[in-house]
Amino acid sequence: MLKLMLLLVIPALLAACAASNKAPRPPRFAIAIHGGAGVIDRGAPEAEKESYRQSLERALRHGRDRLAAGDSALDVAESVVRILEDDPNFNAGKGAVFTEDGRHELDASIMDGRNLACGAVAGVRTVKNPITLARLVMEKTSHVLLVSDGAEQFATAVGVERVDPTYFDTERRRRALDRVLEERKRRAEQEKSRGTVGCVALDSHGNLAAATSTGGMTGKRYGRAGDSPIIGAGTYADNRTCAVSCTGTGEEFIRHVVAFQVSALMRYAGMPVEQAARTVIFERLQPDDGGLIAVSRTGEIAMPYNSSGMFRGAADSSGLFKVSIWEE
Ligand code: GLY
């Protein structure tokens, strides 16, 4: 009797296992965003902290929903960064910091992990969404980086939305510039006002993309560009490894080619994304330099930073949805 039961039950169990192995798995997607490292005090008013959280949630929800609908990582990364550029809470687009002569010079870059296609702009002054211009550099020119007047001329040629430079002004950033200039008079110090924005995404087709946009650093010199428009420093995406977007003191991120280093440690040293990202942030950079967000080709997310905090958020197809500012 027992033998007969085993004869009937075992094949049924095997068939069930085989069927469940064949059941199509829902496509995996993952997204991470940042709104800058080391920019807010834990003691800030609750309303201010809540406003940042809401801004991050709005952008993250938009990206998560578009990935769930099957949109490409590239489209999602661009559109999430556009939302963050339009949000005066962050130092990119509206709300960008002032240069030392009271203007705004915006930088952005974007990269497609499918084919290493990339585009960037630096020092633009009238382009409402620099990330979109960066994408057009990638798609409509044979170049990677256009700067200043050349980028403005290209913006006219491709017809992206333009604004009067005062559109980017905010009272808060004006006060930050006044503080920096005052401080500089007392002692020569570069202020580290940050708030760069970025997005990395893995879409349900298995493709990665990264996008980064910034106003740079408060009181920066005319013509200074940081890591955000530099492919390999502030932005990198390669379907073989990961997508990375950085935030922090741009000069250090350029010096250490941070975004590419994360990808290289994964590719050549076989590190998982978390280990690779932490190695660069904690062993190559100095404390308070900043942080990064990265998503691997299998959907793991890493968001290390060595500053006091980092505006960030992560979501994926398993139901993760979380925004944070400090360690919790
Ligand atoms: N990480 C932004 C900048 O240094 O410009």
What does this structure look like?
The chain is α+β, with helices and mostly antiparallel strands and 328 residues long. The chain has a single domain (30-320), classed as Glutamine Phosphoribosylpyrophosphate, subunit 1, domain 1. The protein is built from 9 helices and 12 strands. The protein has helices spanning 2-22, 46-68, 73-86, 130-140, 148-158, 171-186, 250-255, 258-269, 273-284; strands at residues 30-37, 106-112, 117-124, 145-147, 197-202, 208-214, 235-237, 242-248, 290-296, 301-302, 310-316, 321-324. The strands form 2 sheets. It has an 8-stranded mixed β-sheet with strand order 4-3-2-6-5-1-11-12. It has a 4-stranded antiparallel β-sheet with strand order 7-8-9-10. Helix 8 crosses helix 9 (273-284). The N and C termini lie far apart (59 Å). The relative contact order is 0.18. The mean pLDDT is 92. Residues 196, 214, 216-217, 226-228, 247-250 line the site of glycine (GLY).
